[in-house]
Structures
1.
Amino acid sequence: MHPYAPSPEHEFLQRKVGVWDIECEYFFDPTSDPMKAAGVDTVEAVGHYWVQARSEFELPGEVILRGVALTGFDPVVRMYQGTWVDSATPFLYTFEGNYDAERDLLELTGENIDPATGELVTYRSKEYYGGADARIFELMVEAEPGLETQILRYEYTRRR
């Protein structure tokens, strides 16, 4: 018997389950256009409490980037929590935050290593939901207090 029944917050996460095509933009250099790429995100439920996303991106130069995200809701601390690992870095990224129902936005933050500098920086992700079949994910980094820079934007479309 489980002491914690799935909550509406856990049910919210199930919206992501499925296969998604991703149009990617990476903002590496503010003086030039963003680098564009494409990807696929396969999201599966891990029981009633978690979702796991396995992502694969085809970057220019025939580079394949793979990543895995795990997202859940902790009923004790009353926050969404997530992790990210990928094939380009040796770091485990951790995030936590809240969902804003009015804006249909899941916003998570975490202090993680910037792979370009090796320094600890604050990352903030914003995931906007556009109904059942679309979402937008943006990732920002704050390397200096008050100076936040967007580093990527993903537009997801659910496969039919």
2.
Amino acid sequence: MSLDNFFKIQERGSTVKTEIVGGATTFLTMAYIIVVNPAILSFAHIPQGPSTVATILTAVFGCLFMAFYANRPLAVAPYMGENAFIAFGLGALGISWQLRLGAVFVSGIIFAIFACLKIRPWLANSISPSMKHSFGAGIGMFLFLIGLYETGIVTSGATGLPAAALSTAEGVLRAPDVPLKLGNLHNPTVLLSIFGFILIVTLMQRKVRGAMLIGIAVTAIIGTLLGHGSAPQAVMAMPFVPPYDLAPIFLKLDIPGVFQLSFLPILLTLFLMSFLDTLGTLVGVGSIGGMLDEEGNFKDIEKPMIVDATSCIFSALVGSSTSGAFIESAAGIKEGARTGLATLVVAILFGVCIFFIPLIEPLQHLTYAYAPALMAVGLLTINSIKKIDMDDITEAAPALATIAMMVFSYNIANGLTAGLVLYSVIKICTGRFRELNSGTLTLSSLCLIYFLFGIPH
């Protein structure tokens, strides 16, 4: 069977050449994940060498499954936002990375069951558009804040001292330090970070393919030449042998520990984040590639959602965070990609990268190089805030509370759960309870359990 017949290339108005170009374009726009994902997960104490291999394997597996099962030009890799939740959001709980991966695995099983039973589409229709957009905007601002903090552009202003230490000579309690303050803008690495962000944004505005990857690389090269980094020790290396052996994290997840009441909000958050990321990606790229029906719904949505769930399970097994369809796939779709052949090209290119990890690895240790990319991704996601219905206070209030709680409590779970609870409460208090359906009330009830019996922080 030819490529054309298998992938239905002509039937969808494309060509083999167009699919290859589209796949290469998508890869260039999302290849930064190889650098950024292991760097973020290192804050959860997951070793970077094995984590880089796991990131690449997850992308290869997800893209191959998407190509041959769903036949869609949607590349798959570990999600931004979810990795930050695993590394930073769960950091305050003091749980092991094995337990965090166990939560990713169990949530993936739940995704798969819900996708097969078509529950995820039902839940999608239960969340108002304003709330969906607030989730995206909140996660975007959270990523932007992480980038600002990791680069040192902003830093902590709290002293951590007891109230007694803040007293003046007259015994009057002075004003405490602000939670955040401007960092040292004379620090060379901070200046490099600012340069990196400006470069990435400039390249993105000029629609340069691989803008984030180019920005990371150029900033790293300049920083290394100035003495703030080290050159690669090698160009190529064999994977699956030290220091790129997968054994330290492969199948090391703690599944039994997930089955406790206190873990319910974590599973709920992972579910909502992945679910909304996938839904937003499918609708966004579907509108570009003509994959939506007359009512604006993604055609045959269960297949990519099953791919999303299966890749999530796989990523936990190999030692990475929640994965799914990437919004960067839109770059390849804009080039004309319409089939899974483009996604197959992405899988092949990711597979090649597994032999060049030594070339990539130094970038993972240069916060000033990769953190600006977090800010750029956050910038793109924050854009959804303009789609919140600000004229309806019953929509705007819970939406803005969602964003504020994510950012100011430094926890995505707090924002998601608080927003969904407030949504139902405000609708009921304003006499508009008829706008709520069973799905909305189910989600709100689950979120309320988080605050009543969980471990909010």
3.
Amino acid sequence: MLEIDFPMKDLIIDPLVLTVSGCQQYCPHLIEAVRTLQYAWDPAPNISVGLSNVSNAVPNENRPLINRVYCAMLMGVGLQMMIANPFDQKQNDVIRWIETKDTSTPLARVYNKIAERIANSEEPQMEDFDMSDPEQSAIWKTTQILLNKVIYADSYLMN
């Protein structure tokens, strides 16, 4: 931003996160926007998102999972900061696992695999998940919603 003498390191771009419950088709677009914004300038600007926006108007019991999975996807493409619930310990675990590349538990491996696949412009694959584990199965279903492969419904986690 040489035209106005504003240091790029001080710029924070906050692309709009739209809710999966009404604007599901835009969830994958934000992933690509975060990826692209980092290559639009040199040096790259900081990128922040309001993470919980993706789960607005979703039943409260489903919101943390949607936020965690989207967090892993966005971290995979280089998200540096977010507005998120600091009291969600499972979310904080996901952030730590991805930041440190910790794969010491099955869930840590799954979230790192999601971030890795998205970083490589790939989609998570069913074989990345232990579908006999209900938690991993729910994570898989959530990736499909966030990638706009399956239409979102409030009951998407029910068998």
